[in-house]
Amino acid sequence: MAKEHIIESFGEEYLKIRTFSTAGGAHECIRPTKPMDADDLRSTIFTMNIQGITNRHIKLYDLIFKRFIASQMRETVIEKTAYQVRAFDETVEEEIPTRIVQHGYDLVLPVKVYTILTGKVEVKGKKSYHLKPKVPYYTFATVIQEMKEKGIGRPSTYAVTVQKLLDRHYIIERRGYLFPTKLGRAVISLIKKREDIYRFVNENFTKQLEEIMDRVERGEADYQKGIRKRVHTAKGKKANSLKCG
User: Fold this and answer.
1) Terminal CA-to-CA distance of the chain, rounded, Å?
2) Closest to 192 in 3D by CA, of 184, 207, 243
3) Residues spanned by CATH 1.10.460.10 within the chain?
């Protein structure tokens, strides 16, 4: 579908078919099934007098369609310019895109380029101050990226895990950033104090379970032995906990 649309709309030179995930348990993403963009969809709705589809539905479809098409297009080559800003006793060096050298997926998902002001710039009356955290705040994307890097979860469970934390009010979302709540801090503090509980819910234990499942899937391990070992470990810890209590 993407191939047909890209060749027809932009030319064969813009096509670059990709496969993104080979992770175990990966599910196919939500994607369009026909080479029909948002304008085509609007025309179809009007022509066939289809009811129940709102502008919000079309906006969501447009987002999915554009991202899917862009994922199968060649890269956009951009030129970045390094610049230096001096203010007070601080000097900051940054790089920003200033020119598109070769068009690619930017024809579907535009890439913003900037014009750099040179020389001295008058800032009187334009000053604003912002507190920057020492550690960047988490977003949905950065949490999922960290889960991938640490080998926690599966593609089908990344977003579900974060959503569960939101539903149970362990975290809240503000302006796209995720913050722990008082309840969330209290729960994790309690769990960490209970070694008999924490060892079963920490990142390393979860990662080990994922690795065992991968080995079973590849035929490198016996799932029954793996289950017996985990049950034995859990029973042993439970017995120790009861003795201590």
Assistant:
1) 62
2) 184
3) 140-244
Q: Is the pLDDT of residue 242 over 70?
A: no
Give CA angle at 218 (214, 219), nearest 5°: 115
Least confident span in 103-117, 170-184, 193-207: 193-207
How many Å apart are CA 109 and CA 118, to the nearest integer? Answer: 29
CA-to-CA separations, 69 to 37, 60, 133, 192, in angstroms, rounded: 10, 14, 36, 45
Domain 140-244, CATH = 1.10.460.10
Question: What token pair was written down for 68?
Answer: 């899917």
- How far is 153 from 206, CA to CA, in rounded Å? 8
Cα(24)–Cα(163) distance, integer angstroms? 21
When mean pLDDT is compared across 93-102, 211-220, 231-240, the lowest value belongs to 231-240
Task: Please report which helix (H) or strand (E) contains residue 78, including its range.
Answer: strand 77-87
Could you write out the three-class secondary structure of 152-187?
A: CCCCCCHHHHHHHHHHCCCEEEECCEEEECHHHHHH
Rounded Cα distance, 205 and 152, in Å: 10
- The encoded tokens of residue 155 equal 């593609």
